[in-house]
Amino acid sequence: MKSSLPAAALLWALPHLAIAQVAILHIRVTEGEGALVAPGARNPHPLAVEITDETGKPVAGAAVSFHLPDEGPSGTCASGLRTEVAVSDTRGRATLRSLQANRTPGRLAISIVASKEQARAGMVSYQYIVEVKSGTASSKSAAAVSHGHLKWVLVAVAAGGAAAAGALVAGHSSGAAASATASTAATPVTPAGVIIGSPSITVGRP
Question: Which parts of the chain are beta strand (E)?
Fold first, then answer.
C-alpha cells in the first residue's frame, strides 16, 4: 500500500508539470512570408513556422492549424479544404505545403494557430496572388537604356554645346534607319553605341 502512494501522486502531478512547462507559445514564420502566387497556380514554396515556448525553446508536438479565408483572395490546401493541421516536430517546426491559390488577385491572409495543452498562440501570415508580367523586366531594361542615353546627351552638351545635344536626341528618336545611315559616316562611336558627329553649326558671338 505504501509503494502505490508515490506512484499515484506522480500520476496526479504529471499533467500539472506539463502545463507548467508550456505556459506560453510563440509562432515565427521561417519561410514563405510575402510569397507571390499566380492566380489559379499552386505555390511551390511551403509556408513554414517555428513554435517556441517563453524561453525560446522549440516546442514539439504542438498542433498548428493553417486557415485560408472563406472569400476574396484565398485557395485550398493539399487536402482540398481551406484548413490544414500539422504537428510541430522536434525542432518545433510545422509546414503548410501545396497551397492552391484561387483566381482572385490581392493579399492572401493565412491565419495560423498553435496549441499545446493549455497554451495557445495565433498570428496572420500574408502572401500575394498576383499576375507576374514579363514586361516588368523589359520596362527596367528600357529605363536603364534611357538613363544611359541621357548620360551621353549630357556629354554631348559639354563637348559640343546645346546644338550637338539636340542633334543627338533627334538621331536617337529617328529609329533604326537613321542610325544605319549615320553609321556610314566616318564618325567615332561611343561605348554606349551612340554616334556623335562633329558639330556642324557655328555659334557666333552674342
Answer: 26-31, 36-37, 47-52, 63-67, 75-76, 83-87, 93-96, 100-101, 106-116, 119-129
pLDDT tens-digit series, residues 83-97:
999 999 999 999 999
Whether the CB-CB separation of 178 and 171 falls below 8 Å is answered with: yes
What value does the mean pLDDT take over residues 48-52? 98
Tell me if 161 sits within 8 A of 199, measured CB to CB. yes
**How distant, in Å, are the alpha carbons of 89, 100, 124 from that of 116?**
13, 28, 19
With b for 16 or more beta-carbon neighbours within 10 A and e for fewer, the 105-117 pattern comes to beebebebbbbbe
| pTM, rounded to two decimals | 0.57
Q: Delineate the domains of the chain, giving CATH numbers in brackets.
A: 25-129 (2.60.40.10), 133-206 (no CATH)
